[in-house]
Each structure stands twice: as C-alpha cells, then as structure tokens.
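step=encode ok
step=design start
structure_in=
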C-alpha cells in the first residue's frame, strides 16, 4: 500500500511505504511537516556543503530568477554561465581549460566518456575501452552504470552495460597490484580512459586510498596516452579536506566531473571540464567532429547563479577553516572507535568519517543497512549506512554537540546490532 503516486529513488516500496515529509531546511537540520527535526548528517545525499539555505545562495537564486530563468544554450549564452566557467577555470589547476555544462553527476560522467571517445575518434585512433576501479560508482545512467561496479543494483540492466577493464581497489598494502593491473590495462591497444573517484570511493563503501597511489595512477595513464578522468562529483568542493581531492595528489586530470556541491547543493548543476587538446580534437569546420551532447537545461542560469554564489562563499568566508575544524572534530570522535571490538576499519578523509559495524549474525548483512537507518531516524538523525558501513558526511556547519549526538547514537547502535 502506498499513500502517494511517487516512485522514490532506491526505495523498495513494499518495505518502506512512507517517506518523511520535510517542510523546511536550515543549516544542518531538516524540519518535518509533523514538527520533528532531523539532523542531516549525510548532507542530503552528499550535496549540501555549507548547510541548507545559505543566505547568499538563496539571494543569488532569487535575484537570478528575477532576470532570466532558462534559455537555450546552443548559440546563446548568459552572464552566470560565462562568469562561472571563467571562475572554475581559474579555480582548478592549470590544464582544465574548457567547461561543459550539464545537470547531474551521472550526466557529467556520460559527457566525460563521450569526450574521451570523441577525442580518439576525431584523431583517427582506435581506442574506446574504459578502465575503472573495483567498487567504483559513477551514477545510474547506462554509461555511468557500466563504468561502476556490478551488483544487485544493476543486475537487471547487465545486458545493456558495456564491458570495461576493472582493476582492483588499492587497499592498504595492495596498492602495487592496482598499479600493475592499471599498467597492463593501459598497454592494451584500445585503452581510452581511466575513470576514477579520487581518494575515496563513495557509494562503494567510503573506501579510502592514498594520494600517492592516485598520483601513480595518473602517471601510468599519462605514460600510455590513456586519458585520466577524475569523477569528483562527491569529492569536489571540500569533502576530502581540500577544494578538490586531486589537489592532494598534486595531479591534474585530463577530464574532471563536478556536480553535487558545485551549487552548495542547492540546485542541480554539473560540469565536465577538460584539457585543451580534448576540445581541440573536436574543433573543426567539419561538422561531424562536433561534440554531440546537450541537456535541455544545460547551464541553467539560476543554477549557475547558485554555483557562483557558492564560489563567492568559498572566497569570502573561512570555509577552509570550517572544514579543517570539522575534520579535526571527526578525527577526535572517531578515535575511541578505532580499538572498539564492535567496529572495524574506522577511517576518515577530510570531513568524511566511516566505520564498519561487525555484524554478529552474517544473515543480518542484507538487512543491517535499513535497520540501522531506522534506528538512527528514530533518534532524529539522518544516517544512511551502506550495508554495515556507517558514515558521517555532514554539512560543514555542523556543531560539535551535534556530532556528539551522532557518535553517541553510533555507540548505541554498536551495542544493539554489533
Ligand atoms: C553521486 C555520484 C554520481 C552521480 O551523481 P548524480 O547527480 O546522482 O547523477 C557520480 N559519481 C559519483 C562519485 C557520485 O558520488
């Protein structure tokens, strides 16, 4: 039975009939229609950065809505898109020279894959194979799903997914196996691009790996002429402690995808940025070399204005300080769990903390995620564990006492479910 015609994302309606009705958002909090308040400890699925309804972003949205709502982006342009593209090129490391707009992380990855294949085809090079990391996640459209890990989440669509070369995740002590596999994959004559989440694989279970490995991966790709595509959809805009995760490895990708936090999480917008040579491979009086991609809402002016306001906040407020303090607070609270027998793999990168609950009964593994979710929700906390992996990925405005409440609930969950 359902009380709404809505078909919700990643939801088994037979098991979860009702959704929580949210009426307002403020900072790190969601206010429900029934008056309940819920702490948004996963930034509303990893998008909210500064907190809900940052006043500067809200104002920018209002102002832009008063001027221009939407306009075709082929043959036309507008100031928010122009200004944002210039700012993004200035903000990212030298080498990402062009900005292609779209409206979701999945689409930004599709665009990246199409750019990579177009680059080789337009140069008459027969390379079309994608290389990807085990446990990777890049979105839910067909190309992004193909690039991501295969699981129950995409089993039904398997016949439509294209084949990719999968290399092992570089877990601690096994980094060399990853690099060797990448080297072998890059030697294949048809290798086109490595698509990778830098430093942390999000949906794959908040799996963290080192900047040294990332740097080596980038070097191997470059040495074989294989394009390096950084999917910074989740890691971008401060999550890992730096503005972009690639900064920590001192690398510049050939193609980079940003979405989620680009508008502070307020509106859907994505960009795929690329190196000059990728743009140049499409630059021709021959129309068949055009980059054939568009979304109806490419570079929506209101979303671009929200993203500009976000960048403004990064400049005018001490966002980096806030992130550093949040990282330190997470580290401090995570510490007691590092030697706690109920948990394993306590880990942190930047503002993100994660740990795995040791589940006593293996039969529990399939249902532990939803059970933990309900447990936390009943305490007014939005955490959405990935199986037995509990992670805290909060907006940067979260207060120390709010983090305390989260860790106290995790401690309690350890007793209840561990
Ligand atoms: C969320 C995510 C995506 C997909 O973004 P959507 O906006 O949900 O389409 C792609 N890549 C990574 C790494 C993500 O975390």
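sequence_out=
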């Amino acid at each position: 039975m359902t009380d709404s015609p809505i078909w919700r994302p990643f939801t088994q309606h037979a098991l979860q009939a009702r959704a929580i009705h949210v009426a307002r958002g403020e900072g790190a909090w969601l206010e429900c229609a029934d008056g309940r308040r819920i702490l948004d400890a996963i930034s509303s699925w990893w998008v909210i950065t500064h907190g809900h309804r940052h006043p500067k972003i809200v104002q920018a949205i209002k102002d832009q809505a008063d001027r221009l709502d939407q306009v075709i982006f082929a043959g036309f342009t507008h100031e928010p898109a122009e200004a944002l593209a210039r700012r993004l090129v200035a903000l990212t490391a030298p080498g990402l020279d062009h900005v292609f707009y779209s409206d979701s992380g999945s689409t930004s990855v599709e665009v990246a894959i199409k750019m990579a294949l177009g680059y080789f085809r337009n140069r008459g090079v027969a390379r079309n194979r994608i290389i990807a990391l085990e446990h990777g996640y890049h979105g839910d459209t067909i190309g992004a799903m193909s690039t991501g890990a295969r699981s129950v989440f995409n089993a039904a669509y398997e016949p439509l997914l294209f084949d990719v070369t999968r290399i092992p995740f570089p877990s601690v002590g096994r980094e060399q196996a990853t690099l060797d596999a990448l080297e072998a994959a890059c030697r294949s004559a048809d290798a086109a691009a490595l698509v990778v989440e830098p430093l942390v694989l999000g949906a794959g279970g908040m799996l963290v790996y080192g900047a040294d490995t990332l740097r080596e991966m980038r070097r191997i790709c470059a040495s074989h002429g294989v394009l390096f595509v950084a999917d910074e959809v989740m890691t971008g805009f401060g999550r890992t402690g730096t503005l972009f995760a690639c900064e920590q490895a001192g690398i510049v990708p050939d193609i980079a995808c940003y979405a989620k936090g680009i508008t502070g999480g307020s509106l859907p917008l994505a960009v795929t940025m690329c190196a000059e040579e990728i743009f140049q491979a499409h630059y021709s009086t021959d129309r068949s070399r055009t980059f054939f991609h568009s979304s109806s809402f490419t570079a929506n002016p209101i979303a671009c204005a929200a993203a500009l306001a976000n960048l403004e906040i990064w400049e005018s407020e001490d966002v980096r300080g806030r992130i550093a303090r949040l990282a330190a607070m997470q580290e401090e609270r995570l510490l007691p769990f590092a030697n706690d027998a109920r948990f394993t793999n306590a880990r942190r990168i930047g503002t993100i903390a994660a740990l795995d609950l040791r589940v006593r009964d293996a039969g529990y593994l399939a249902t532990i995620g939803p059970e933990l979710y309900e447990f936390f929700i009943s305490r007014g906390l939005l955490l959405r564990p990935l199986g037995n992996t509990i992670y805290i990925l909060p907006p940067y405005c979260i207060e120390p006492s709010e983090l305390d409440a989260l860790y106290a609930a995790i401690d309690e969950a350890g007793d209840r479910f561990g």
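step=design ok
step=annotate ok -> The domain at 318-417 is CATH 3.90.1150.10 (Aspartate Aminotransferase, domain 1).
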